[in-house]
UniProtKB/TrEMBL annotation, chain A:
<dbReference type="GO" id="GO:0016651">
    <property type="term" value="F:oxidoreductase activity, acting on NAD(P)H"/>
</dbReference>
<dbReference type="InterPro" id="IPR028202">
    <property type="entry name" value="Reductase_C"/>
</dbReference>
<dbReference type="InterPro" id="IPR036188">
    <property type="entry name" value="FAD/NAD-bd_sf"/>
</dbReference>
<dbReference type="InterPro" id="IPR023753">
    <property type="entry name" value="FAD/NAD-binding_dom"/>
</dbReference>
<dbReference type="Pfam" id="PF07992">
    <property type="entry name" value="Pyr_redox_2"/>
</dbReference>
<keyword id="KW-0274">FAD</keyword>
<feature type="domain" description="Reductase C-terminal">
    <location>
        <begin position="323"/>
        <end position="402"/>
    </location>
</feature>
<dbReference type="InterPro" id="IPR016156">
    <property type="entry name" value="FAD/NAD-linked_Rdtase_dimer_sf"/>
</dbReference>
<keyword id="KW-0285">Flavoprotein</keyword>
UniProtKB/TrEMBL annotation, chain B:
<dbReference type="InterPro" id="IPR012675">
    <property type="entry name" value="Beta-grasp_dom_sf"/>
</dbReference>
<dbReference type="GO" id="GO:0140647">
    <property type="term" value="P:P450-containing electron transport chain"/>
</dbReference>
<dbReference type="GO" id="GO:0009055">
    <property type="term" value="F:electron transfer activity"/>
</dbReference>
<dbReference type="InterPro" id="IPR036010">
    <property type="entry name" value="2Fe-2S_ferredoxin-like_sf"/>
</dbReference>
<dbReference type="GO" id="GO:0046872">
    <property type="term" value="F:metal ion binding"/>
</dbReference>
<feature type="domain" description="2Fe-2S ferredoxin-type">
    <location>
        <begin position="2"/>
        <end position="106"/>
    </location>
</feature>
<dbReference type="GO" id="GO:0005829">
    <property type="term" value="C:cytosol"/>
</dbReference>
<keyword id="KW-0479">Metal-binding</keyword>
<keyword id="KW-0001">2Fe-2S</keyword>
Amino acid sequence: MAAPSVVVIGAGQAGSDTAAALRSQGFGGRITLVGAEGVPPYQRPPLSKQFLAGARSVADLALRPASFHTERDIEFVGRDPAVRLDRNGNRVTLASGRTLGYQHLVLAVGARARRLPVPGARLDGVLTLRTLTDAGRLRDRMRDTGRLLVIGGGFVGLEVAATARAAGLAVTVVEFGPRLLARAVSGAMSAHLLAEHRAHGVRVLLSREVTALHGDGAGRVCEAELDGGERIAADLVVVGIGALPDVGLAAEAGLAVGDGILVDGHLRTSDPAVYAIGDCARFPSPHTGRPLRLESVQNASDQARCVAAALCGTPRPYAALPWFWTEQYGLRLQIAGIGTGHDRVVTLGDPGAGRFSLLCFRGNRLLATESVNRPADHMITRRLMGAGAPLPTPREAAAPGFGFKAFQEAAAV
Amino acid sequence: MAKITYRHPNGTETVVDVPVPNTVMRGAKINNIDGIEAQCGGSAQCGTCHVYIDEANALPLPAMHESEDDVLYGTAAPRRATSRLSCQLPVSEEIDGLVVHLPETQS
């Protein structure tokens, strides 16, 4: 009998970590890692920060050293995306025409940047940021640009705005919703970030929509038109309005998809030989009691290890605690848990001094801790939530002198 | 260049020469050493590059910054007096011969 084989489609954080975790957990069969891009797996978070600022090179971004795949006997196939999945024949066809047989398939195909659905969105100088190629292009363009327009006040948009502002560009952010990072943080944290961006000289417009982009006659963007008719001059536009999970391959193969490839608590798709993880997967979360799709390093990495464990014969349901971070102007925001649906917030520390945490509760239950330059609050929340240990109630957290360090010590976790 | 020993929880060890400049975390990453995750890429945020400095070590390591100390409150493996974040330990000739112990788990 042939050695068991795993094919991993997608060579981002989730796919690369799956291949690595399979080997470190003792998997002895064949592993093939298939990527659409021509470069080995790289870190994505620095693309909008240090890489964009020119402080880190392509070589610094590599997730693993060049020797990794040969040393671990992993076949890495670059620049050859999967185009067809034949589940009856247990075969994947790549763009080159090559076919790969598998016993287990892991879809780590990620998500692609949403395009702006307005006239002019295809003009030269209108960019999205998702890949290393995107980031390189944006970095080059930022060098000869004075006025940047960022469409979308999410993580990518705000990080690009902060990096560009630090590089001296005039920056405007237009957000369709009434507040920044609305899907990820509390209203109070949105307000803090808004004040921070404005204090650094970024013009932020909320509840406003870009209805068209106009070119300069040579096909290059020069102006944006907003609802209400206002026009904003810009020679570079970054569209950061979210990402769409890459469900095409899965849907064509008849797998269940929604906003993402649907998986069970063990990250299996509707076909038990096929798993889906990372940005493309919608999974049931024990932390929220409803299906989630998360775009984060933590989620990609933890799901990779979970799938690897299953393929190595030690399956366990996926239960890792979600956490996120962003850095803007040296402000380090870390989020532990999912705060959606919170109904009260307790503040620790001093927002005015730029060091504080917002504890988001629903009733007596702590859903998430949002920390600005207070890493201990973040780390202890992660540890306690991850261990299922008792958490502070709003009354305890609001008591004078409350601190997470003392709380953790008393809990002896 | 400095020789650094990464001792695994099962007692085996990997000894590598790490070029300067680097951190003890990067030294593990560029040499394919399992047991250091460094999910945040080395910015002292995630606590997944936790190591224990060998007790016999008498090499001049930099003092711990407050944020490193804070992050060490939440490591997956127990914090000890010898705990450090390896991303906050720059490699230099002065720490040639450093021995670090990798924890059982990082996340």
